[in-house]
Amino acid sequence: MNAAPTPPLPPSITLCVPARTDSLHLIRYVVLHGAIQFGFPEEDAAKIEMATDEACSNVIVHGYGVARSDRNHPPLYIYIYFEPDRILIRIVDKAKPFSPLSHGDVQIHEYLKQGKLGGLGIFIMKALVDEITHQYSEGEGNKLELVKFLPGRRPRKS
Amino acid sequence: MRRLEMTLGQFPNGVILMTVKGFLDTDTYEDLEKQINQLYAAKRFRVIADLAELRYISSAGIGVFIAAFSEAQENQGKLVILNANDKVKQVFELLELGEIFTFTTSREEALKAFG
């Protein structure tokens, strides 16, 4: 007996938006609805939405250092790939090298005692997706990838 | 399009009701920060934040609430959260703030938190 045909994967999505904070709403909308349409439950889709938001916010605010009132807005590229078991979000920018992975894990209560407020976004990003990788090269800039597996499809660690 | 809206009210006992609607993120958090700073500058440190219609909060928004919470406490006041939806509350919980902030589901309960 032949196996049921696998439905085709949705085509990937490419967004090129100005690296400004008012682009975040559009980025979140596309990521959230893309993930839901792909098959993620709403709760998981919201996690992917938020991790992407935090990653892009870091690029805009810390990478490019763009203030809300700035008129200059370099491009920020967001690629959304729908793969058989997972969604992959690739965020590419030409800002200075910045890897969220180089920041240690935040101890929230210690953090609050010290009155520090930065770094929460990186903590959130790491907590909400299954895999994060970062690469930087002179020519291509920063390439941050966020991966989340569909429920029950995450490979077991050997 | 305004993505974050705030309105202010006041209970007879002087507690401020601050309603926050929309999307609280890196783009909008400064608006909330400004609103809270204005309240605190007027020595109004007893605040209920009604988040029933807050649809999204990022770390930038959480940061504003953390700072506001601490400053209210330092001034013998309090910041109480009212009607946060599950999506918003989950972000507080993810950051282990669920037991630090007071979450309430009615105005009566929120007012009681002020004693």
Description:
- The complex is a heterodimer of chains A (about 160) and B (about 120).
- Chain A has about 160 residues and is of the alpha+beta class.
- Chain A has helices spanning about 25-40, 40-65, 110-115, 120-130, and strands at about 15-20, 75-85, 85-95, 130-135, 140-150.
- Chain A has one domain (about 10-150): Heat Shock Protein 90 (2-Layer Sandwich).
- Chain A is built from four helices and five strands; from the N terminus they run E-H-H-E-E-H-H-E-E.
- In chain A, strands 1-2-3-5-4 form a five-stranded antiparallel sheet, covered by helices on one side.
- In chain A, a hairpin with a 3-residue loop joins strand 4 and strand 5 (about 140-150).
- Chain A starts with 12 loop residues before the first strand and ends in a 9-residue tail after the last strand.
- Chain B has one domain (about 5-110): STAS domain (Transcription Regulator spoIIAA), CATH 3.30.750.24.
- Chain B is built from four helices and six strands.
- Chain B has helices spanning about 30-40, 60-75, 85-95, 105-110, and strands spanning about 5-10, 15-25, 45-50, 55, 80, 100-105.
- In chain B, strands 1, 2, 3, 4, 5 and 6 form a six-stranded mixed sheet that branches.
- The model of chain B has no long low-confidence stretch (mean pLDDT about 95).
- The interface of A and B includes residues 22, 25, 53, 108 and 124 of A.
Overall SS class of chain B: alpha/beta
Low-confidence stretches of chain B: none
> What series of H and E elements makes up the topology of chain A?
EHHEEHHEE
Catalogue the unreliable spans of chain A.
none
CATH architecture heading of chain A = 2-Layer Sandwich
Beta-strand fraction estimate of chain A = 15-25%
From the alpha carbons, calculate the radius of gyration of chain A and give it in angstroms: 17 Å
Q: How far apart, in Å, are the first and last alpha carbons of chain B?
A: 39 Å
| Overall morphology of chain B | globular
The coarse overall form of chain A would be: globular
**Total number of distinct structural domains of chain A:** 1
Pattern of helices and strands of chain B: EEHEEHEHEH
- Quaternary state of this entry equals heterodimer
Portion in strands of chain B: 25-35%
Find the count of extended strands of chain B (DSSP E, 2+ residues).
Answer: 6
Spatial order of the strands in the main sheet of chain A?
Answer: 1-2-3-5-4
